[in-house]
Sequence to fold (261 residues):
Amino acid sequence: MVMTEPVLLTETHAGVRTLTMNRPDKLNAANDALLLSLTEAMTQADADVSVRVIVLTGSGRGFCAGQDLGDVSGRNMTFTEHLNHTYNPLIRAIRGCGKPVISAVNGVAAGAGASLALAGDVRLWARSAALIEIFSNIALIPDSGSTWFLPRLVGYHRAFELMALADKVRSDEALRLGLCEHVFPDETFQQEVQAYAEALAARPANALKLTKQALNAAMTSTLDAALDLEAELQQVAGDHWEHQEGVTAFKEKRAPDFRRG
Ligand code: LHQ
Fold:
């Protein structure tokens, strides 16, 4: 009997759920099975009370090389249908998730894989990782959110150039451009990501959920609308036990415990 490897590996440790894209021979190029199971796993992790932080990463030397160009399963759909069926729900699941999502970019992120690398709330890169808005090499336009994420990070003109020329952005430049928060050595990357994720998991989950909601809304809103939403969500945060715990811990000169409750 031929055993096939799952396209997605799932592991949970200390409140951190790690989702590992697992098609290493193809640099984790995405087929429908991978994309649909990733979306499902993201939704499940969001609903699971034991999960506080989600890490998205790749197995082997790649993060994700974008659409699997050899996979024809999406070809009975139009491009529009394919995006609406697979990539777009995934990007929406990441951005709409009530928990922090870390894009742990262990290797090359190309095409829609670059979009996944940018979609996380935190982007941690291995030294050897790289990002390529590679779509124009095959005469397509950037999708899966790249046209939305990239200009907000680097401005219109730099985004256009990276997309038009499909230049490879290496980790030192990615850090300089604001495409990632931290770069870690390849050798210790997994441990660094887990340590970072556990530190994030100790932060107040309800407050981070509301912060994510407010920030996502603010990306497309006016200052007036942002002020109104802050005032509304601050009430929700202030009514939560986490706030009491934070204030009490401050007064008692101890570290708050946001993991109880
Ligand atoms: C791959 C792939 C891959 C299959 C590496 N597919 N096998 C598009 C269409 C429809 C709707 C939705 O939206 C999209 C969005 C997109 O994502 S379009 C962009 C699609 N991706 C690409 O065009 C990237 C193609 N890959 C590459 O250009 C290179 O592999 C990069 C620059 C990523 C990495 O180069 P290297 O480090 O030199 O690795 P490699 O090319 O030797 O790849 C290793 C293996 O992985 C190789 O297989 P082999 O059997 O020869 O060892 C590649 O064929 C395979 N692979 N990407 N997307």
In short: The chain is about 45% helix and 15% strand.
